[in-house]
Amino acid sequence: MAVTERTVRNKRNSAGELTGKAGTVYDVNVKYKSGGKSKTYSRKGFLTKKDALQHEAEMKAKLTNPAYTPPSAVQRKMTVQEYMTEWIDRHGSANLRPSTEASYRSHMKNHIFPYIGDVFLNQLSPAMLDDMYRQLAEKGLSQSSVKYAHRIMGVSLEHARRYHYISSNPARDILTKFGKQSKTPDPYTVDQMRQLLAVVMGTEWELIVVLGGLYGLRLSEIIGLRWRNVDLAENTFGVVEQLPFNTPANTTVISEMAPVKSSERTLPITPLVRPYFERHLELQKEQKRFAKQSGNLYFDNDLVFAKPNGSPKRRERISANFGQLLRHAEMPHIRFHDLRHTAATNMHQLTGDFYTVGQILGHSLKGIGIQLQLSNNLEAVTAQYVDVRMERKLYVLNIYHEAVLGSSEKT
C-alpha cells in the first residue's frame, strides 16, 4: 500500500510539538519511474489518514508529470531556518531594497525562527503556520506584523516550491483570517502642523520637522542632506544623496553617500523657512566650538543633521523619538514618513497643482497621483508642462508655508 500506518511512542500535535503520548501516524510511499529507473517518493508522519491519502493522490499526479522534479535527500533534511537563511542570503540583496531585506531578516530572527526554525522544511504544515500566527498574536504582536510574517513565509515557501524543495506551499492553505488592516493615520492638517511646529520650536527637531512636514522630504534624504548642497545665498538646497541604509550604528565618518530613491531635485528655501536653516547652522557651529574647546573629537561630515560630535544620526532613533515626541505633546500618532503625506496633501489642497507638488516631493506623475488618491490619467500631461520652473515650486511652497508659519512668524 502507498499509505501505511505505524505507532509512535511520542506523537506530535498539529503544531509540530511532541505531546508525550503514543499515537498513530501515516506514511506515504509512492513508487514511480524516472529516467527509466524505479524510484520511491516518501513522506512520513501525517497525523491523519485523510491527509496522507490526499498527499498520496497529489504526488501520484505530480510524479507522472515528466516536468516534475522531486526534492533531493539533502533538501528533505533541510530545516525551515536553514532554508530561509539560505534563501534571504541568495534572494535578498539581488531582489529587495536594503530596508526591506533588513526588515525580512529581523522578522525571521525574532518572529519566525523561534517557533518553526527547527522544523524540517518538507514537514512544515499549514497547521504549524496557523499555530505560529496564533502565538505571535497572543504575545502581543500587532496584526500587521503577524500578517507581515505570513507574507515572508508565503514568498519564501513559494520559492521553495518552485525549486522543488517542497511539493506544495503550506502558506497557501492556512486557516488564519487576517482582518482589515488598521487605518493609515490621517495626514496632519495645516492647523496640526502649526501645532507641531510650536512644540518643536527652538529644539533640534524644528528643521527636521520643517523638511519632513513642509517639504515632504524622506527621512533618509533629511539625514543625508549636506551643507555643500545648501545655498543660502541663492535660497535653494539640493536633494541629491542620502545616507547608505546599512550604515553601522557606531559610524563616525561617512566615506560615501548613496543616491536618492527618486530623481535628484533642487528646492527653494522660502523666506519663512530660511530662519530655521540659519538657527540650525548656528547651533552646529556652537557644537563645533564646544568640541574644540573641550578637546573632544568632532567628525565633520558636512551633514546638516548630525550628533553633537558630527557623526551621522540614526534613522531608527529619529523614528522612535518622533513617536515619543508626539505622545508627550498629546498629538495624534503618525509615523515620521506620514509627514511626507502631510506635505503632499496640504500643498495639493491649497494649490490644486498636483504636478508641481510631485516635483517637490520627487514623485513621478503616477506616484503623486497614487499618494493623493487621484484617479485621473496623469500620464496624459503633455511635454510643455514637464519643465516645472523654480518659480512655480516657490509659489506652491510659499502658499503652504504661509498657511502654517505665517501667523507664528509675525507674532
Automatic annotation (TrEMBL):
UniProt key word Membrane: no
Keywords annotated in UniProt: DNA integration, DNA recombination, DNA-binding
CDD domains, sorted: INT_Rci_Hp1_C (cd00796)
Coiled coil: none
Domain Core-binding (CB): 78-161
GO biological process: DNA integration; DNA recombination
MF (Gene Ontology): DNA binding
Residue ranges of domain Tyr recombinase in the record: 183-398
PROSITE patterns given in the database record: CB (PS51900), TYR_RECOMBINASE (PS51898)
Keyword DNA-binding in record: yes
Any Pfam family matching the protein: Phage_integrase
Assigned protein family: Belongs to the 'phage' integrase family.
Protein's job: Site-specific tyrosine recombinase, which acts by catalyzing the cutting and rejoining of the recombining DNA molecules.
Protein name: Tyrosine-type recombinase/integrase
Annotated source species: Dysosmobacter welbionis
